[in-house]
Write a structure and sequence with these properties.
Length: 164
């Protein structure tokens, strides 16, 4: 009986998960239509080339989407930005805090390394699309990226069990 119930319910659960969020917004879609569908963005960035809306699942999720709009208010691009490829576009020694925010959004957590005098923004993501990881972006006091380092996400570390 249990196997029958699982077999009957599993396809329904998978179909429900596939429908979460619906299809991505279409290129050219107006900003107000995108906001009506996706809800209030977690941040809005004014750029010379238009506006960027941030939709992030940080601090606990592993995804962030940036909806970029041209000066005419039409959607130019919509992409998931917490990826190895997008992190690679941030150049050590050149990228600033503002550039990091406009490229990958707000971090899951921040910390400070007093011995090195660096502020660290950490982002949860799926490294190579597979591993539960964190990308740590280190800034000097001028707000310039000085180092980037990926490592395992401690939220997914297996906790030691006593008395097995």
């Amino acid at each position: 009986m249990r196997k029958l119930v699982i077999t009957a319910i599993l396809p329904l659960l998978l179909a429900a998960c596939a429908g979460l969020g619906g299809p991505p917004p279409a290129i050219g879609e107006r900003m107000d239509a995108v906001q009506a569908r996706l809800g209030k963005p977690t941040a809005v960035y004014a750029m010379e080339s238009g506006t960027v809306l941030e939709y992030t699942t940080q601090p606990f999720g592993q995804y962030a989407w940036m909806a970029r709009f041209g000066p005419d208010g039409g959607l130019v691009s919509y992409e998931q930005v917490l990826t190895d490829e997008k992190f690679a576009t941030l150049k050590v020694g050149l990228a600033t805090r503002d550039e990091v925010l406009r490229t990958i959004g707000h971090p899951a957590e921040t910390s400070y390394l007093s011995l090195r005098d660096l502020t660290v923004w950490s982002y949860r993501y799926k490294q190579s699309g597979v591993w539960n990881s964190m990308m740590h972006v280190h800034f000097d006091q001028a707000g310039i990226v000085r180092e980037m380092m990926a490592g395992p996400d401690p939220a997914y570390d297996e906790k030691p069990r006593f008395f097995r």
